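A common beginner's mistake is to predict each chain separately and then try to dock the pieces by hand. The better habit, illustrated here, is to supply every component at once so that their relative placement is modeled jointly.
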Amino acid sequence: MYTTGVTSPQGVWWKPAHKSERIWFTIAFVWCLVLFAMMPLWHLRGGQNPSGIRARVDPQDYVARVRQFVADYGTGESEAGIPIVAPPPGSEVYLLAAQYQWTPILQLQQGAQYTLHLSSLDVNHGFNLYPFNVNFQVVPGYDYGLRVTPTEAGDYRIVCNEFCGIGHHLMVGRVIVEATATADAGAGGTGVADAAGGAQ
Ligand code: CUA
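With all components supplied together, the output reads:
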């Protein structure tokens, strides 16, 4: 008796799965079901959100918070007219993403802790602190508060890493981290920061 593609072999011609294979298959199948159940469960109970502060916010209300933040701690403007803000350590910091700009420019102190709020006025943007591996979605209607402590002094750029429109590649913000007196010999620079803080 020969077999071809159109005539089936007779009887049980395959080797039944080995016991260990059946056990492995059962474990994999059960795990599939667990992961499948996790999707709706996580959607309903997990919040699908990062740790830290999160809240819904009307984009216009968020803009108002940013304006207040600039009014409270603003120290000047960049050449492009973007406000520069030097919030005191421990304060709430508000950063707004909007096509195609990050507002304001942040001037932070090394080693100090801040709560960095991120939200968008219009569409999804991506917060990427270059050159560090810090990535965060910036979503309109949501206020995400991240507790951050700058560890290295420097002049950094915020690069938008979520395609947000025709000017996406131009959307670059700025974070300046000033060295503290203990971390750097530049006591003069710190003095300037202190003077600015005292003038508020
Ligand atoms: Cu904002 Cu890309």
